[in-house]
Amino acid sequence: QGRLKRISHLFAMMHSVKLQPNLESYAAMLECMGHTSESVKVIWSCLQQMKINGFEMDDLFQKCLFEEDEKENVLKAIRIVHPDYQLPPPPSPQICKSSLLPDFYSKERMVSYPKLDFSVQELQECFQQQLQMELNNTITMESVEATKPLTPQAIKARKVLDTLRSQWHSSIFQALRKSRSNMPKLKTMSGHISLYPYLCLLPDEEYVGIMLQVLNTLSPQGESLTVLARELGSKVYNRYVTQRKLHSGQLEKVQEIYKDYIHLLAKDGKPGEFLPREYWEKLVAEAGFGPSVNLKGCDWPYMLLVRLGMHLLEILVKTVKFPRNILNPRLEPSLIPVLYHIYSFSSTWQVGLIKPHPIFSQLMSEAAETLLTFNSSSIPMLCPPVPWTSPNLGAFILNDTKLMRFVDGAMQHQVLLEQCPPVNLHPVLDALNQLGNCAWKINQPVLDIIISIFNDKGNEKLDIPPPVSEAPKPSVPPGSPSTWTKSQKHEVLLCKKKAAEMHSLRVDALYKLSIANYVRDKIFWFPHNMDFRGRTYPCPPYFNHLGNDVTRAILLFAEGRPLGPKGLDWLKIHLVNLTGLKKKNTLQERLEYANEIMEDILDSADHPLTGRKWWMDTDEPWQTLACCMEIAKASRCPDPAAYISHFPVHQDGSCNGLQHYAALGRDLIGAISVNLMPCSVPQDVYSAVAQQVEELRKKDAEQGVKIAQVLQGYISREGVKQTVMTVVYGVTRYGGRLQMEKRLKEMDEFPE
């Protein structure tokens, strides 16, 4: 009754200022009326007003989203006035009419959707594991460094940290409650919405847990204040969305639908002639009553996320302290803050940073803790993703994921996507679903070799970052920095910069390898979304198949296929492509070369770290090693054609932007230069451009142009490659000049 009074009051206010209520407002009003069994007269008046404003009763059920039993209550209210009213039938599915895809969406040519090599029961178990992971919001795992023996120093540091964290927990808990009690309930003095309601959404324990997590992951170099605040605000938002989905009944609905949906993908499932999106939409339409599968709009503005994060960071900075003498008993035992808010300059901008105290960073380093905590959305999915059916629904079960990535705070993309007729998005949604339904597994032998090198001080040549302890030390005399020369100060600065870079690379590799190790015995999936250009990306950020050489080498398709009569030959050609040794040779010459070096290939596969190590001197060493192992297994098989291979072959366009231009313009010369036309040897547009630039340089040099004379011997394929590639994507003359400057600086002999 109270809610009905409030809504009625709002309606009256809107009417007085000549504002027209939207459809959702009428749905909320009728839901209250159904709940309280309001009189016929009041409901009739509401329905009449709704009609005057251009809305029909059917619109309520076709365009509004509902939670819990709201839909039933709206229907109950309508039937008080119109007892015979029936729910409108689900809209008939629309067929995409894109002129590029007439056959794909033609019902006459519809083929069965390919089945995964899993039973319904197995996929249901996978779903339950994924759901549990998302309900926990975070996942804690052992890092790959956990195998190292513990030193007495590490044991002592961990005990100290445990004691401090226990104290910090109670301090933050009290500070959070105190800050909330001092907060205005509606608006701040500056007119901003009060943060009070956003600090009451979760149990206090959860806010404290989110804040303490920051201390475990903060880099010694610090982190941008805005980035950190946005991250904290997002964590609160994500947990709130999870709670909403649980309490609104939306999760229960998704569970029911997913249970039927997996029959489309499972090898023992019945339905066939549907795409994942079509089958999901069909199941949603048949589900009828109950909450909607989409959650009612609950996006928080970017600035709100940042303000909320800033407030939590402020509590952390003011509350979390430790004794100065924690590592050196000779110092006085006064309490000092763990975190500092400092300013730095990025170009001409002043940037706020949150930086940990060096003593705290040293304590963390000595403790060498081996547990890592990730958001559940950072881990590959343990079941096939929820298919994309709209810009707001797809990918994870509970974690909110947007169809399109965009810069923080930008909303116009999402608005445009939501205004776009759904049928126009079908090809995009179906493409993302197809990518997401590909199952993966770990190449365990390669992962184990990489982890062993990672834990043995790394190897920069093989792209395994060494630990920061291997960073170069400045050769400056002990004493005050004021006594150092200018060159010594510069050397110290360079060493600090190198150490920061090494820390960043090491942590990135640690995350990738630890996640890979966590899923080493599991089958997993990568849900995908896209950027504004339509380029697709896996949603889990750290470990995915678009990663570097190391990451690609440890991934295999979960489902294998027989190599077939020519499969082994193609694997050998792929191996030679990975080495980068025969870029200008024909495919046949590459195959012959592979057969010539078969001894090296088998030696690399059998003795990767103790043999001749041929694989280490290639462009993509880890993928080369993985391919050597696959060729060894296939060639030793009694019938290589029948060998079941799980090996992914990554392929790339040659300057794909120019390929599009050549195809659109039917440009024969352009098409030949970017391999769109059959050719006995691979064409290389970058070399062709470099050759033309060199010819122009010679002419200028002959005419006495000084720069052209200095550039003799420095015009190369590598020099022009980046600019040729990016000119297609709108690089400016200024940007191109910077690219050139960077390439020249990378050349050791080039005169400064």
From TrEMBL:
The keyword Nucleotidyltransferase applies. Keywords: DNA-directed RNA polymerase, Nucleotidyltransferase, Transcription, Transferase, Transit peptide. Residues 463-485 are annotated as: Disordered. One of its GO terms (biological process) is mitochondrial transcription. PROSITE patterns: RNA_POL_PHAGE_1, RNA_POL_PHAGE_2. Residues 464-480 have a biased composition (Pro residues). Residues 128-437 form the DNA-directed RNA polymerase N-terminal domain. InterPro entries: DNA-dir_Rpol_C_phage-type, DNA-dir_Rpol_phage-type, DNA/RNA_pol_sf, RNA_POL_N_sf, RPOL_N. It catalyses: RNA(n) + a ribonucleoside 5'-triphosphate = RNA(n+1) + diphosphate. GO terms for molecular function: DNA-directed RNA polymerase activity; mitochondrial promoter sequence-specific DNA binding. Belongs to the phage and mitochondrial RNA polymerase family. This is DNA-directed RNA polymerase. It comes from Colius striatus. The lineage of its organism: Eukaryota, Metazoa, Chordata, Craniata, Vertebrata.
